[in-house]
């Protein structure tokens, strides 16, 4: 499985577990409101810094975004 | 520990375990010859796609780059 796909799936899982919308996560992480949706559709290749900010919003260790399902 | 630092440490550890130089990893991953050195000095924020290519060169699951030491 491509790493983008792993990140997309984990991002969606962690986001929904927190009961947050894509726009709420994007806003809290200081990102464009469509960016989280693009990540969940594997349309972008996010940087380490961006994913660290998203993990902080989701209150999850960053490594959780990279675990194989 | 910042995610850049975690990636830098794991990259160096995995690279040395394979007995590869920074330039060899950069070449095999199709990156600028100085890029891997920059990553190990936490000077860049690499993308998911770039780290996937580096993990493939190091013959390690990508998640290994993100594990806390």
From TrEMBL, chains A, B:
Protein name (Swiss-Prot/TrEMBL): Helix-turn-helix domain-containing protein
Keyword Transcription regulation: yes
Keywords: DNA-binding, Transcription, Transcription regulation
UniProt xrefs under Pfam families: HTH_3 (PF01381)
InterPro entries linked: Cro/C1-type_HTH, Lambda_DNA-bd_dom_sf, TransReg_Diox_bact_type
Organism: Novosphingobium pokkalii
Keyword Transmembrane helix: no
Domain (HTH cro/C1-type): residue spans on this chain: 11-65
């Amino acid at each position: 499985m491509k790493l983008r796909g792993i990140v997309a799936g984990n991002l969606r899982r962690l986001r929904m577990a927190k009961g947050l919308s894509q726009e709420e996560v994007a806003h809290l992480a200081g990102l464009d409101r469509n960016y989280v949706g693009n990540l969940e559709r594997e349309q972008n290749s996010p940087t380490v810094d961006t994913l660290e900010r998203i993990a902080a919003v989701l209150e999850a260790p960053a490594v959780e975004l990279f675990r194989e399902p």
